[in-house]
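Each field is set out underneath.
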Amino acid sequence: MAAILREHDPRSILVTSEATPELWEYTSDLVTGFASRGIDVTLALLGAPPSPSQLRILEILPNVRIEVTRLPSVVSAESATDLSQATSTLLAAANEFAVDLVHLHSPMLAGTKRWTMPVVASNFSCSGTWWSTKSTGQMPADLMWRTRATAIGMSILDCVIAPTWAHACAVTDFYGAGLSLVSVPIGRRPSLKINPSAEKFVFSAGDIWHEGWNASTMDKIAGSLTVPMYCSGEPRSLSGSTVQLKNLRCLGQIDSQNKDVVLGQASVFISAATYDPVGIHVLDAARAGAALVLSDLPGYREFWEGAAVFVNPRNADDFVGAAESLLGNSQWRAEMALNALDRSREYGTERMLQGLLHVYAAVLAKRAIALTA
């Protein structure tokens, strides 16, 4: 039975997304959750079209419309012109289908002018906050125009949604105060592949090509462990550059179901990331029953304080020491894995959906008040 909508809940939404594995899982949970509540959803997809298997679950929902735009994705866009074309297409779709609200997956898609309906955007990561983690060097031109587009987009949005308060603070520090910012944690469904016995190998996952994933440190860790270390993810960037790994055994990009199987067998999950605002792979590892060894980042602390071992992301030896200690002490490993599993249950899809609907209702109510003032 569909949930009863409140006065300021949207009756129809346009949601944007891309078919990348992590973003698609998030989008599928959103669309399915909204549709189950009787909300009409128009899903506008940028970038490469999704596979038939990706679409299958959403296509059977009666109140979901899927628009494959084939426009450049946020990542593959080469200029602000590419993004302005996407913005125009999305605005036309929002007007055509008379949606109550638009939820963009990046502030860059908001464009430069105020929309005719309320618009919110998720800031999962951005060039500005990523660059602020680096101590030296001038921002490259490709990141500079993206940073400008993000700043302009956020200035006209009704609300910016960050996955953690730590990232919301980073956004404020870099782009300045005055933005309407909230934090709504990412949520996941419970894993069905938990293996309490676990096997003695270490696992990781992420955008291996991205500098923030810290591939050089991860490879050093893999070379010093007494057990195998595997990772899933794409080592090749869109520009064609490839991260070279000597010790870490890369499985390539694997779907969520197969990743859950591997995570359910791993003893320890390591993230040595220097930038990871969302932390979705850590959440996946925790809900699958792996013990966590993580970079000492504010966002990781926010989610996993007391449920993970924290390490300086530049110190490979400390990661190795923490992982080997967990591998050699089954009681401690089981305790840390259980702590992480219990914590992961706080971040389910229902909490995420309720948080987003609360944001939507507040934005719609504010617009309604402004129109009658």
